[in-house]
Amino acid sequence: MIDQQPAVSMENISIEFPGVKALDGVNFRMFPGEVHSLLGENGAGKSTLIKALTGVYRIDSGVITLAGDEVSFHSTAEAQAAGVSTVYQEVNLLTNLTVAENIMLGREPRRFGLIDWRATRARAAELLTKLHLDIDPNSRLGSHSLAVQQLVAIARATGVHARVLILDEPTSSLDADEVQELFRIIRELKDDGVAILFVSHFLDQVYEISDRLTVLRNGKLVGEYLTEEILRIELVQKMIGKELTVLEDLERKTRLQNLDETELTPYVRAIGLGRKGSIEPLDLDVYEGEVVGLAGLLGSGRTELARILSGVDRADVGTLEVEGKAKRIRTPRQSIRDRIIYSSENRREEGILDELTVRDNIALALQADRGWFRPIPKKRQDELAESYIHALNIRPANPDALLKNLSGGNQQKVLLARWLAIAPRLLILDEPTRGIDVGAKAEIQKLVSNLAENGMSVVYISAELEEVLRLSHRIAVMRDRRMVADIENDDLTTDNLLAIIADGATTEAVA
Amino acid sequence: MNVNKIMANRLFWPVVMLLVLLIINLLAFPGFFSVQIRDGHLFGSLIDILRNGSPTLMIAVGMTLVIATRGIDLSVGAVCAISGAVACSIILGSSDPASPATVTVAVVVSLLISLVLGLWNGFLVAVVGIQPIIATLILMTAGRGVAMLITEGQILTVNSPPFKAIGSGFFLGLPISVLIAAAIFVFALVLTRRTALGLMIESVGINPEASRLAGVRARGLLIAVYVFTALCAAIAGLVLTSNQTAADANNTGLFIELDAILAVVIGGTSLAGGRYSLLGTLIGALVIQTLVTTVYTVGIPPIATMVFKAAVVTVVCLLQSPRTTELIESARRRNARRRGKAVTA
C-alpha cells in the first residue's frame, strides 16, 4: 500500500491565526481505498488541517498534492470539484430547504438550462436509499433530528464523485445502529477506492473502522501509525502527552449527605410536568448535591425535558417547585434567577457567541443577570476570565481571543465557564462532552462530580451510557417521550440500562 | 504601535478615505482648512461639513445600534418628515410662534410622537417578529403620508426665531446642530460602552437564541433600540426643518436613511449584526458629508454627483471587504517571511 501514490499528501503545513499557531509544519498523507483516522485533543489542529485541505483556510506555508498534482483550493467548491468532499463536525446544511435541495444543492440536474426538479428529487431519493434513510426528500431538513441531518450531509458528500471523503465527527450525534449503517457505507466507499478521512473521539469506532492513524498535538504532528500496530493506551498517551493522570478513573462519589429523602425537600420538583407534542406529563425530583442522569435514545424526550425544566420551553401542564415553592417559569431569564441553568447540546446555535471574545462570552450570563445598568467592572471581568481559563484549562489561554478561533472543545469549556460564573444551584448539561476528546471529557466529568459534592444539583444528559452511569446518583430513563424509569444508580450496569431503554421496564418494577 | 497593527484596525480605511478627501479639497481650494471667527461664530468649510453632516450623524448613531442587533430601520426619513411637520404645525397654530414656550411644546410633542413611532417599529420587530427591513418599510411608506396629512399637503413655512436657532443658531461659537449631534453621539457612546448595554446589543445581534438562553432580555432591548433610533430621527428632522424654516412632507429627510446606513457600513459595522463601532460611524458620516462638499469644491457637475458618490463608496467598501483584508494580510506575511529568510541567510 505504501508504494502506491498517496491520494492526498500535505507537506510541512503551517497556519497561524491571530494569537494562535493552529498548525506548525504538519505532514499528512492518505492512500486510496483506506480509512485514515486523524486523532488529537481539542485544539490539536484536526479541524484546521481539514479546512486547509478543503480550501476553507489558506495555508501560510507548505505544499498540498492530490494524486501527485500540487493543488491550492480557494474554496470548498473548488475542492469538491477536484473530488474532495467534507462532512463537517457541526452539520453545515440549510435547514430551511428540503432534504432533496440540500443533497443536490449546487449540482442540480438541468434541462434546457433550468433545474429539473423531478430528476433532482429522483437523484436525492436514490442517494437516500443507498444510505437506507427512509425520509421524504421533499420534507424540510430542519424538521428532522440532528442524526438524520448528519446522514443527509453524508448523502450529499457521497453524491459527488468523491476521491477523498472527509468525515469530521460524523458519529457524534448517531446512535449505535446508525453508526453501523454509516460504517457499512464507509466500507463500500473504501472498496470503491475512495480515501476516507475519519475524525472521531470515539476510540472504539476509530479502531473498528480505520486502517491508519495520524496523531496531532498542539498543532504539531506526533506521528503516523498503522491501527493494528498501536495499542490503545499508547495512542492515548500520544494524544494527550504525559498528562495521563487526568484519565484516572473517576470513582463514583458518594452523595453529599446520606439523604433521607422523605424529610428533605428537593431543590427542584416537577409534578406532572409536560408539554403537548413534546413530553408526556412526568414527575422528577432533583435534590441538592445530586447528579441525576437522563438516559434514552435520541428523540426520546431527554432534551425536551431539560428545556422544560429550565424554562427554555414552557410547560403547559403540571407544576414546577423550587425549594418547595411553586414557580411559574416562562423564560430562561426567570429560571436563571432561581439559578437553574440549561446548557444546550447545540453549542453553535444556542450557546456560543462566536464573534465575541472569551471574556465577553464568560461574562454574558452573569452580566445579563445583574442587569445592563450594573456593568461588571473590567477588572472583575478579567479575574473571572483568568480564573476560568485556568480552572478549565481553556486553550489558547487568551481572554481576548475571539471564540470562533477556538476549537469545539474549548468553546464548550467557555460555555461551561459562563454558566459556572453565575453559581448555579441546578445545572442541566445536555451532551456536554459531545465531540470532545478524552482528556477534556475526563476534566468535565471530574468537574461535574466535584460541583455536586459541593452541593450543586446536576441533571446530566448523554448518549454515552457509561458516562451517565459513572456520574449519576440516580438515573431517569426516557423512552418515546415518557419517563419509563427513575432508579437509584446502585449496581446498575450498561446492560441493565440498555434493557430499560430498549424495553421500557416500568418504574414500579425497577424502583 | 507598529504599521501592521494600525492597518489591521477596522477604522484604518475610513480614516484614510476621509484624509484623502480633505487633501483633495485642500488642493482644489487652498483656503479649505481656514476657520475664521465672524461675529463670535466659527466659520469655514470644515465647520460647514460638520453642520451639514450633523442630521446624518444623529440618525447614523441610532442606525448603528439597530444594525448591531442584526436589524435595519428604513423609516428614519419618514420619521424626520413627521417630526418636522408636527413641530411646524404646532408653531403655526399657536398665537405666539416666536415664544420659546411654543417651540418647547412643539419639540416635546414631536419627540413624544416619534417615541410612539419607534415603539411601533420595535413592536413589529421584537413582538410580532416581522423582519426589520419589512417592518420598517411599512412606516417608511406610511410615514410620509402621515406627514402629508399633518401638513395638509402644504409646505409649512414658519417664522420663529427660537425654532430657527435649532438648525442655524450658534452656541459658544459652534453651530447648535453640531452640538446636538455631538451630544447624541456621546450619550450613545457612554450609554452603551460604560454600561453592559453594548455587550447585550452585540450578543443579540450575533445570536438571539443563545442570548435568550443566557438570560438576555432580547425583546426589550430591541424595542429600546428602535425607539432610540426614532428619537434620533425626530431630532434630525427638527434640525432639517429648522434649517429650511419649513416642513416639507415630501422632501424633509428624503433618502437620509440610505446615507445613515452608508455611514454605518463605511464605519466598519457589519450589516450581519454583532460588533459595532460608533466611532466608525462618526467617521463614516464625515466621509459622506465631505464627499458632498468635495463635489462642489472640485467642481464636479451636479448631474455627475450621484455617480461620483457611488464610486467613492464602492472604493471604501472594497477596501474594507474581508477578501481585500485577507489579500493584504497574506501579501504582508509573505513579505515578512521573505525578509525573515533574507536575514537568516
TrEMBL record, chain A:
Source taxon at top rank: Bacteria
A UniProt-annotated Pfam family: ABC_tran
Membrane topology recorded in Swiss-Prot or TrEMBL: Peripheral membrane protein
Subcellular location: Cell membrane
Organism: Mycetocola zhadangensis
Domain ABC transporter: 8-243, 254-505
Record's keyword terms, sorted: ATP-binding, Cell membrane, Membrane, Nucleotide-binding, Repeat, Translocase, Transport
Keyword Transport: yes
Molecular functions per Gene Ontology: ATP binding; ATP hydrolysis activity
InterPro entries membership: AAA+_ATPase, ABC_carbohydrate_import_ATPase, ABC_transporter-like_ATP-bd, ABC_transporter-like_CS, P-loop_NTPase
Protein name: Sugar ABC transporter ATP-binding protein
SUPFAM superfamilies: P-loop containing nucleoside triphosphate hydrolases
One CC-aspect GO term: plasma membrane
